[in-house]
Amino acid sequence: MPSKRDQKRFIKRLNADFTVNGVTRKGVSSNFSINGLFIRTNYPYVVGTMLDIDIHLPDGEISRLKGKVVRSDKTSMGKVIGMPVRSMKNGMGIEIIDKDPNYLHLIRDLVD
Fold first, then answer.
1. Which of 1, 14, 20, 56 could join 70 via S-S bond, C-beta 3.0 to 4.6 A?
2. Weakly modelled stretches of the chain, pLDDT under 70
3. Closest CA relative to residue 39, chosen from 107, 112, 95, 103
């Protein structure tokens, strides 16, 4: 995935489902770019994992993506520097391998 400086990022939070080996988990997608996004979840997969991702768009449509984990963040249980775990940024940075027209439409809307 190109560095954050290479692509404009757009902050928008949308529900997401991601599936690996038939197991589907839920998360919240954010920090979108044309070729990547971040999924906040308590179940991040290791770097290199391939995922099927459904992004639930504001208009009720679903964008179906294929992606690869390029960054995985998971805080340990308990408190970290006096902050509850739920306030930490658990999740995965995803490089989008295959995107659909709905995703491209979302990015166009975010640019405008």
1. 1
2. 1-7, 75-88
3. 95
What is the pTM assigned to this prediction?
Answer: 0.80
Question: In a 3-state reduction of DSSP, which class is residue 48?
Answer: coil
Torsion of CA 101, 103, 109, 112, to 10 degrees: -100
Domain harbouring 29, CATH code: 2.40.10.220
Q: For the segment 49-76, what is each residue's pLDDT rounded down to a tens digit?
A: 999 999 999 999 999 999 999 999 876 5
Report the amino acid identity of residue 99. Answer: K
Which residue, chain included where needed, has tokens 């906040």?
40
